[in-house]
Amino acid sequence: MASPATALLVSDHVDGSVHVLSVPDGTVIGRLTGRHLSEHAGLLALPGGRVACVDDRRGELLVLDPFGEQLVLHTVPVAVPAEHLACDPSGRLLAVTTGLGKNTEPWSDLVTVADLTTGEATRVRTRVGEPGVTVLGGGEPLVVLRHRGPGALAVHRFADLLAAPPGCPTAGPHALLSLPDDGHGDAYDPDSGRVFAATGEGVHTARRAGDTLAAGPVIPWESSARGWYLRLDTRRRALWTTLRGGAPDPLRWPEWTNQAWRHDLGTGRTHRTDLGPGLVFRLALARDHTAFTRVHPDGDELVLLGADETLRRVPLPAMDGAPRRGCTPWEGVERRAVAASPGSDWVAVTRGGHGEVHLVDARTGDEVARPRVGTPLRHGGHMMLLGRNDGAHGDPVGR
């Protein structure tokens, strides 16, 4: 079969499998078994249509080529459970932080850095927690760890970490920039050299200044709600998130409010669009649309926000085992993953527990295919939709 122009990578992290589908017909053209990818660290687009991810069970960083005859190109040993994954703008230097895994309290302070060109990899100890990470270019590469409690952006020279001796030595930062203690969400814009961190106050900004960071202005949410992650929109030069508001009690999740939040990096203007109540998790960026899934006891939907601010709502069939009223939306329930490519109009949404993927044309809202991958996709699985040269690697943080 000829290699497709657009491919969909579908990870069933519970079952331990990875599927590659051609788009838009949905034919399964590749498969890996025995690979439990970290859903939290996510999938990272690299130049040339490659993808980086972490196998949490084997403790390996994988570099995949969904368009090639050989799906797994490289493996590099890393510390797990993987929390966050990022690379420098060249896609050559990567960093992986560790998080909770199946534990209730932070326990690991290990960070792994790797050079894909040489195959070198080193683990160092930093600070126990769940740090976010970005890897900066524009000179000597820097690793910036975003810590919580106390909050900080900790700056490390990539070369210093890679040259650390065996035995996982402690590696202190050579520069620190203070943050509030509730940071959660990271982005890096290679074009401007700016780093972004989401907090309750808003989005804290910093700019590379030699081998350190200089603090910039805080971008306010302009809402009583806040965002919990950040996405860099490489096509429209913007930051995106979803503002979640309402009672913090997870049992009241059907009442949570959700707004699409977009901050234009060129003009400095912020736009907010109401998405409706319930659980809105991650978002995906297509050519002319931003896609969200909204889970609610009264019915789920795919929400497509056009570049012209038009909003289209596409009903989705119910999931067996979906979150219910009176229960949390996180534990032991099915969810939905969403994926899109900045180079196409296709959007993919999973139906957790059913092993189905809805492929939708964002221009019309029509479902063009509904492939089954052969595994349940518990908890919604995780996905990446990508083209060979769609520019997705311009966002160097795993999603």
Description:
This protein has one domain (6-394): Methylamine Dehydrogenase, Chain H (7 Propeller). The chain has one helix and 34 strands. It is mostly beta strands and 399 residues long. β18 (202-209) and β19 (212-215) form a beta hairpin. The two termini are 29 Å apart. It has one helix at 158-162, and strands spanning 6-12, 17-22, 28-33, 44-46, 50-55, 60-64, 72-77, 82-87, 93-98, 110-115, 121-125, 132-136, 142-147, 152-157, 175-178, 186-189, 194-198, 202-209, 212-215, 219-220, 226-227, 231-233, 238-245, 257-264, 270-274, 279-285, 289-295, 300-306, 311-316, 338-340, 346-351, 356-361, 366-369, 382-387. Strands 16, 17, 18, 19 and 20 form a five-stranded antiparallel sheet that branches.
List keywords for this structure.
399 residues; mainly beta; Methylamine Dehydrogenase, Chain H; five-stranded antiparallel sheet; 34 strands; 1% helix; globular
Query: Which CATH architecture?
Result: 7 Propeller
* Count of individual domains: 1
Q: Mean of residue pLDDT?
A: 96
- Give the CATH H-level superfamily: YVTN repeat-like/Quinoprotein amine dehydrogenase
- Share of residues in strands: over 45%
Helix content: under 10%
Number of strands: 34
Q: Mind telling me the CATH class? A: Mainly Beta
Structural class: mainly beta
How many helices? The count is: 1
Distance between the termini: 29 Å
Looking at the structure, the CATH topology is Methylamine Dehydrogenase, Chain H
The best one-word shape is globular
Radius of gyration: 20 Å
Poorly predicted runs are: none
Largest sheet: 5 strands, antiparallel
Region (Disordered): 371-399
Biased composition (Basic and acidic residues): 390-399
